[in-house]
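Hey,

Quick one before I head out. I ran the complex with nicotinamide-adenine-dinucleotide overnight. Inputs first:
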Amino acid sequence: ARAREAQKQWRHSSWDERRRLLQHIMDHLLAHSDELCRVVVQDSGKTMENAIAGEIWPVCEKLRWTIRNGEKYLKTENVWTPLFPHKRAMIEYHPLGVIGVICPWNYPLQNIMGPTIPALMAGNGVVVKVSEAVAWSSARFLRIFQEALESIGYPSDLVQIVNGYGETGAALVRSGVELIVFTGSMPNGRRIIEGSAENITPVILELGGKDPMIICDDADLDQAVHAALGGVFINCGQNCLAAERLLVFDGIYDRFTEAVAGYVNNFRQGPPLGGEPVDVGAIVSPIQIDLVERLVNDAVSKGARVLAGGKRTLTDQGQYFQPTILADVTDDMDITREETFGPVMCIRRVSGEEEAIQIANGADYGLSSTVFTTDKDRARRLANQLEAGSTCINDFGFTYMAMGLPFGGVKGSGFGRLNGAEGLRACTNRKAVLEDRIALHKPIRIYPVTPHDYDIAKRTIQMIYRRGILGRIGNLFGLIGLQLRKATGR
Ligand code: NAD
């Protein structure tokens, strides 16, 4: 109710005021980035490097993109409609009202900011339900919005952050907000859809992934190796876009596995604020580390080769799972289907393009995908066949940082898009308006129906849509005749 009240004022804010709000948020992030990263690290256990590159940087890029492009994609757009040349057809992008955002724990700051930035730019209020696993840091992040709103003279109630467990999220879904943006797991995505049916609340679902990374035999080995390390171990693997399935061509398999193992076996792991740099941090919750352990144990029991790690570690200091490489992963292992969300590289040997695509598309998910090859045609051919919301060629995850591109998934990874023009417009009522360009003020007489009306409509349709000019002209004359008869009552 408080956000709704504040939004009544915010919906009339100018583009300039909205840009100023976002610029204040950016200034705050830049001025306090060290402190904010430490807050993120304390709450999540990720490394400082992952916090600055994975939380602050994408949010700054999203702010910059939205400040530059928000007005362009949200201002009223004219659409040419040849059927009514005397009318002006327009799409107006009206704010929806209050948007409910439900967040997971993997990016405590970014998960809040990502959906809230476009929502605010589009004139909405926002109620964010943060994850119970990273509730502590959210109080600090709320201050960013409050200070920015106060500095431009708008009520700080516009953005609310609420804490709680699943039932609080469920209450938000049923609270009458105008849109729910849910980022989280597939099972809870189903619950969101169920809850949203009550008030017919639209939803955007950003769910999990089991993203494939295809490494062809002509790939640049060093480039592919480093992308794979990043794709798997960034954020300790707790990354919706994580490269969960490495599909490596036969011709490069041995060189690739040897190279990644060389790095991972030397990774340093430990508390991220301990003074020394660490490569891999902690896992957020006990539930999550149990899941990772179960999947790794299952794979090993079914024949996966452990090239690095494979076990819990540093148990007296938190939830740490060793950076792990499993080679020769096969279909019967749970880890080939279930999202791991942990520091585990799963490598599978494939004979060529056909097998790679068949395995890649065999998952229930379809969030993102990656292809490594030095052959441009091959890259496009593979990308065209991948069932995913995005494909990044010869880099890992950059599609997310290109903020003009839409972000979201297909299949079990959800629906709706967050970034780019689509993400902004998703926060609006895309309202169609038709107004007079030339005011005719002539009634279109539909009633009472006359014996000529059916033929008039038929002739009109033929005149407009028939192939060939002669047929059209013939119908035009027929139409004139019918209209005259109608007018004279014959
Ligand atoms: P989760 O589904 O357990 O929880 C997400 C949020 O939903 C939490 O705030 C939780 O309290 C809330 N919630 C739980 N039950 C609910 C209910 N019945 N109704 C409403 N809200 C409810 O997910 P998680 O474990 O926090 O996060 C990990 C998952 O998030 C992974 O599957 C990951 O892939 C996914 N994820 C996806 C993206 C993306 O953009 N596609 C980004 C990050 C994370």
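The radius of gyration is 27 Å.

Talk tomorrow,
K.
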